Design the sequence.
């Protein structure tokens, strides 16, 4: 008669099996997705059968099987989109899903049937197939005041239209009253600097001729006055 400890251990092994790991594989729609699975092969006697199923690993075999091998070659294949491209005789039984689709997402079981009681190697996988991301970001438009382009010798500037939030923020023009006497002085100075030369400065030689003529006339008057006296 089995002791309670041995009975509990036997029931635990029976119902839990020998699952060793669970992996998540993320793929992209339209591309091949490889779901890994390997087992150790020390010699030809170690080559064994295995199966892939579209569900978590049950206590035996594979639920909803999609591919079977006898250890040497594929003996059953649910669809040509499910392929084993690895070296089966070296224990590489990774599943390749060709041209993956969103409906390929879900649970997959890799079960390697190793001889012996409860010796099967079980690996549960969660496959997620997503659509490729497409960038939809639109170009940003900036509104600002720009000076002349770098390297340009021109002093002019090009101004991009700008909407002012309120009248208080609008730039002052020459037609608006001066809020400060110093502002008026600055405006007057700028106008004086940019104004054209006065007509009197256009012909300075005329003043020189007038001065010489005046001096000559005075000298003649003095000479006549001396003769008369």
Sequence:
């Amino acid at each position: 008669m089995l002791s309670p400890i041995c009975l509990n251990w036997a029931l635990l092994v029976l119902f839990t099996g020998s699952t060793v790991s669970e992996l998540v594989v993320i793929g992209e729609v339209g591309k091949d997705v490889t779901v890994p699975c390997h087992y150790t092969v020390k010699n030809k006697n170690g080559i064994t059968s295995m199966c892939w199923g579209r569900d978590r690993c049950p206590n035996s075999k594979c639920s909803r099987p999609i591919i079977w091998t006898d250890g040497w070659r594929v003996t059953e294949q649910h669809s040509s989109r499910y392929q084993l491209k690895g070296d089966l005789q070296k224990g590489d039984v990774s599943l390749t899903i060709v041209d993956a689709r969103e409906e390929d997402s879900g649970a997959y079981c890799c079960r390697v049937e190793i001889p012996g009681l409860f010796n099967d190697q079980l690996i549960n996988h969660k496959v997620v197939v997503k659509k490729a991301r497409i960038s939809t970001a639109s170009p940003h438009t900036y509104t600002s005041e720009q000076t002349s382009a770098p390297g340009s010798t021109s002093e002019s500037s090009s101004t991009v239209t700008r909407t002012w939030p309120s009248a208080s923020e609008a730039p002052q023009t020459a037609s608006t009253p001066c809020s400060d006497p110093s502002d008026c002085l600055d405006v007057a100075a700028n106008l004086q600097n940019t104004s054209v030369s006065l007509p009197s400065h256009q012909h300075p030689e005329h003043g020189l001729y007038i001065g010489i003529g005046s001096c000559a006339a005075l000298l003649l008057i003095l000479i006549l006055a001396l003769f008369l006296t």
Remarks:
- The first helix runs from residue 4 to 16.
- The chain has three helices and eleven strands.
